[in-house]
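FIELD: query
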Amino acid sequence: MTGEIQLHGQHDFEFVLLSYLIAGLAAYASIDLAGRVRMTHGSARKLWLLAGGSILGIGIWSMHFIAMLAFRLPEMIYYDPSVVIVSVVAAIVGCTAGYYIVSYHGTHYVQLLLAGFIMGSGIAMMHYIGMEAIQPVTISYNILLVGVSVVIAVIASMTALWVGFFSPYAIRGMKWNLKVLFSLLMAIAITGMHYSGMEASYFYIDGADMISNEGMFNREVLTILVVIVTLLLFVLFFFSIVLDRVLRKQGVLQGTLLDSADEGIVITETGNVILHANEAFYQLFQKAGLSRNMRNLHKYHQELMAGFPFLKETYIKVGSYIIEVKRHEIKGEDLNQSLWFFRDMTERKRSEELVEHMAYHDTLTKLPNRYRLEQKLESFVQEKRELTCIFIDLDRLKFTNDTLGHAAGDLLLQEVAKRLQQSLKAEDLLARVGGDEFVILLIDERASHFEEVSCNLIDIIGDTFTIDRTKITVTLSAGISQYPHSATTASELLQFADLAMYEAKKQRKNQIVVFDDSIRLKLNERIDIEKGLMEAIEERQFYLLYQPKYKLSDKGEELEGVEALIRWEHPLLGMRSPAHFIPVAEETGLIIQIGDWVLEEACFQWKKWMEQGLKPFSVAVNISPLQLVSEDFVERVMKIVSRTEMNPKYLELEMTESWSLTYENHIIEKLIRLREEGIKLSIDDFGTGYSSFRHLKELPVDVLKIDRSFIQLQNDSNGEAILRSMIQLGHNLKLGVLVEGVETEEQVRWLKNEKCDLVQGFYYSKPISVSEVEYLLQ
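FIELD: result
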């Protein structure tokens, strides 16, 4: 460099310190404004973006020229105003571009690198353009140190952007003392970039070639300009602090409201970026094992995307937790935010599922119950799917309950259910619909395999069960119906299979019956009976016959009383047997009304006979179990007795032995009350229900009526022994004994010889009318 003289300068410490403070101030303002950029949208975001980029750019430019003022050369130097302006523009453009990239194109680290590079390049350009504004010197550079200064500028820029947009502090909000710390650290980097650049610069002046200083800024003018810019920066800085406090108060209020809520609450912006999430939200997802440092809501669950519906309660599963999510749109000028609510519904949903499971499943076997079966049937019928229904009834459950106890019976049911389930395929449906009743549903192609399945059931259930170290053999009865072959509705399918099962029970054990036209005919007849019963009650189509009962003694036979027997004369169908209509009446509940009519009619008739001057005798009336279990049974009986003026000591109520085995304490209490009123009680059909001595002893009864089937065995030595022991049992219990079905003189002589108390049967009389009873007595 011929004629050029190298100049050596020195720095004023006061200006160096001032430049550092200005750099820190610019960094603080930029961090604060970065938060505003990140939190706002639309035109407000654009305003904060321009303000943040401008303040940072001007602040760094101001720092640069204050640092230039701190550098003193031995020669008078000036500054080219046009180049100074260009340097300011370079700083502002670089900083604004960096903010723009990270705020509008997502907070990914690729954007951070790009934005940091552009911002750092802009700052470096500002520095070296500003150096070119110095006149009349020429500057040469150490390339290595220039590179170092550029790298420092880029790293400082990336750090500033990370702090303002990417760091956890940016997401949660940054306190002022932390902002100051980051600002001072960034100020070191910014001033370090400048002084590294100055260290890379060599200044020369050509004494022979002096440049005019016209239009140039001298040191004093530049000082005034820098002071003005610095003051402007201070104004913007304090404005930022005031605004930050106002917004922070709003944020604190908003955060307090959100954090006080028990529900998880989140505010998101475009890209599903979390702007605010309360502690309840983080705790909820932390329980599910997720981190609280994720910035995008959809990273907590893939369904929480921008397309998630508004104002719709939706359930998501996170780990083992069930969470209810509801999204609201936050409306306002240029806002694109959403308010999300999260509630832990795990316990509630599990409770609902448990309640639903209990409502639709049997508690003992865990199988679907009748409600679930009917629900499934309705669905399959609507879908027009081919179905076969197999209705199963176990034949020996009652025996197990009576001999081994109900706990053993429950174990037996569980083992039966297990065997049935194991014998079926996954697509078959097995349900428990009653105490000892199960239903198998075969669907679609499996529906045609009902013969194979049902025959297999007999083999499976026929294998011996071991319950409490006791071997039990179980048989079954099953009925089969098909849709749409025999049934047209879901209810018909179940009903027809049930009817077919009852037909199977009438036969020997392990029988399977398929519903056909003969069963349909019986069903239609049953329907006719049910309809007719209602009319019979209203139109008084019932009437009573009376069968005499005789007392045996050595002197002969004496009429002891009569048994009232109901008969039904249908106007179209003619005489209907009680064996046909009584079961229907019991199933429909009409038996209570009919039974009360029989009792009242028999009592009225007894009163009429007494008014005719006949000798008092007993009247026996059969009582249905449904009458006995009704709450007000005793009260109704006594009202009838009072209303008809019947003498209760001549009234006898008969109950079947099989039903007496099931009587509980409150039923026995009713019997005791009736007996205390003077009414006699007897057990009908004795010998058919397997009563034990202990059971008979507990029942408050007066007479055992031995079933007619036993007198038919009288000619057989074994049968004779059985009947004799039954008579002796009654006498040992201090009970009267009556034998039904007596038809021959030989039977009468034998019963007299065995000291039987009472007899009843066709040998003496068939059931007769009122007038025939009167004739017999007269």
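FIELD: remark
The mean pLDDT is 81.
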